Amino acid sequence: MFLKDKAFYIASKKTGLVLSTNGYTEEGTKITVQNKTGEEHELWQFENGFLINKSSSLVLDIIGGDLRVGQKVNLWGRKKTMTHNQRWGIRDGYIYALADPRLVLDLEGDCEDEGTHI
User: Fold this and answer.
1) Segment 73-113, tens digit of pLDDT
2) 29 to each of 7, 21, 117, how far by Cα in Å?
3) What are phi and psi of 108, to 5 degrees?
4) Topology of the domain comprising 8-110
5) pTM more than 0.85
Protein backbone atom coordinates (compact mmCIF):
# COMPACT_ATOMS: atom_id res chain seq x y z
CA MET A 1 0.00 0.00 0.00
CA PHE A 2 1.07 3.60 -0.51
CA LEU A 3 2.30 5.45 2.55
CA LYS A 4 0.10 8.42 3.40
CA ASP A 5 1.99 11.73 3.61
CA LYS A 6 5.27 10.07 2.58
CA ALA A 7 7.04 10.61 -0.73
CA PHE A 8 8.18 7.50 -2.59
CA TYR A 9 9.65 6.34 -5.89
CA ILE A 10 7.66 4.29 -8.38
CA ALA A 11 10.12 1.79 -9.84
CA SER A 12 9.90 -0.91 -12.47
CA LYS A 13 10.12 -4.38 -10.93
CA LYS A 14 12.07 -5.54 -13.98
CA THR A 15 14.53 -2.69 -14.58
CA GLY A 16 14.60 -0.61 -11.41
CA LEU A 17 14.02 2.52 -13.52
CA VAL A 18 11.79 5.10 -11.80
CA LEU A 19 8.91 7.26 -13.04
CA SER A 20 10.21 10.74 -13.74
CA THR A 21 9.14 14.10 -15.14
CA ASN A 22 12.75 14.91 -16.08
CA GLY A 23 12.41 18.10 -14.05
CA TYR A 24 9.48 19.51 -16.02
CA THR A 25 6.53 20.76 -13.98
CA GLU A 26 3.91 21.85 -16.53
CA GLU A 27 0.59 20.21 -17.37
CA GLY A 28 1.10 17.80 -20.25
CA THR A 29 4.62 16.79 -19.19
CA LYS A 30 5.17 13.21 -20.31
CA ILE A 31 6.15 10.64 -17.70
CA THR A 32 9.19 8.56 -18.57
CA VAL A 33 11.35 5.99 -16.83
CA GLN A 34 14.86 7.05 -15.83
CA ASN A 35 17.73 5.92 -13.68
CA LYS A 36 17.09 7.11 -10.14
CA THR A 37 18.95 10.35 -9.35
CA GLY A 38 17.22 11.18 -6.07
CA GLU A 39 15.72 14.41 -7.38
CA GLU A 40 12.29 15.62 -6.30
CA HIS A 41 10.74 15.20 -9.76
CA GLU A 42 11.05 11.42 -9.28
CA LEU A 43 9.06 11.43 -6.04
CA TRP A 44 5.33 10.81 -5.71
CA GLN A 45 2.75 10.99 -2.95
CA PHE A 46 -0.58 9.18 -2.66
CA GLU A 47 -3.75 10.96 -1.58
CA ASN A 48 -7.30 9.66 -2.05
CA GLY A 49 -6.34 7.63 -5.13
CA PHE A 50 -4.29 10.39 -6.76
CA LEU A 51 -0.55 10.00 -7.41
CA ILE A 52 0.88 13.48 -6.93
CA ASN A 53 4.29 14.48 -8.26
CA LYS A 54 6.29 16.05 -5.44
CA SER A 55 8.02 18.75 -7.51
CA SER A 56 4.95 19.97 -9.41
CA SER A 57 1.92 19.02 -7.25
CA LEU A 58 0.31 17.79 -10.50
CA VAL A 59 -1.14 14.27 -10.70
CA LEU A 60 -0.47 11.21 -12.82
CA ASP A 61 -3.08 11.34 -15.58
CA ILE A 62 -4.04 8.95 -18.40
CA ILE A 63 -3.85 11.22 -21.45
CA GLY A 64 -7.22 12.38 -22.73
CA GLY A 65 -9.13 10.22 -20.26
CA ASP A 66 -8.87 7.38 -22.78
CA LEU A 67 -8.76 4.20 -20.68
CA ARG A 68 -7.26 1.65 -23.04
CA VAL A 69 -4.21 -0.58 -23.32
CA GLY A 70 -1.19 1.34 -24.57
CA GLN A 71 -2.43 4.80 -23.61
CA LYS A 72 0.33 7.00 -22.14
CA VAL A 73 0.36 9.04 -18.94
CA ASN A 74 1.40 12.60 -18.20
CA LEU A 75 1.14 15.29 -15.53
CA TRP A 76 -2.11 17.18 -15.21
CA GLY A 77 -3.97 19.28 -12.66
CA ARG A 78 -6.16 17.34 -10.27
CA LYS A 79 -9.76 17.31 -11.43
CA LYS A 80 -12.71 17.64 -9.05
CA THR A 81 -15.05 15.58 -11.25
CA MET A 82 -14.57 12.96 -13.97
CA THR A 83 -11.43 11.68 -12.24
CA HIS A 84 -11.56 8.20 -13.77
CA ASN A 85 -8.21 8.76 -15.55
CA GLN A 86 -6.43 10.18 -12.50
CA ARG A 87 -7.19 7.74 -9.69
CA TRP A 88 -4.99 4.76 -8.96
CA GLY A 89 -4.73 1.70 -6.75
CA ILE A 90 -2.05 -0.85 -5.96
CA ARG A 91 -2.35 -4.62 -5.80
CA ASP A 92 0.35 -7.30 -5.84
CA GLY A 93 2.98 -4.66 -6.60
CA TYR A 94 1.16 -3.25 -9.65
CA ILE A 95 -0.32 0.23 -9.99
CA TYR A 96 -3.67 0.12 -11.79
CA ALA A 97 -6.41 2.53 -12.87
CA LEU A 98 -9.21 2.39 -10.30
CA ALA A 99 -11.77 2.79 -13.10
CA ASP A 100 -10.45 -0.35 -14.83
CA PRO A 101 -8.18 -2.59 -12.70
CA ARG A 102 -7.09 -4.50 -15.82
CA LEU A 103 -5.07 -1.43 -16.87
CA VAL A 104 -1.71 -1.20 -15.11
CA LEU A 105 1.30 1.08 -15.47
CA ASP A 106 3.65 -0.77 -17.78
CA LEU A 107 6.45 -0.32 -20.28
CA GLU A 108 4.86 -0.99 -23.65
CA GLY A 109 6.31 -3.88 -25.61
CA ASP A 110 8.44 -4.94 -22.65
CA CYS A 111 10.80 -2.05 -23.47
CA GLU A 112 13.63 -1.57 -20.97
CA ASP A 113 15.09 1.69 -22.32
CA GLU A 114 15.68 4.74 -20.16
CA GLY A 115 13.56 7.63 -21.42
CA THR A 116 10.64 5.45 -22.51
CA HIS A 117 7.29 7.27 -22.20
CA ILE A 118 4.95 5.38 -19.87
Assistant:
1) 999 999 999 999 999 999 999 999 999 999 999 987 778 89
2) 20, 7, 10
3) -60, 140
4) Trefoil (Acidic Fibroblast Growth Factor, subunit A) (2.80.10)
5) yes
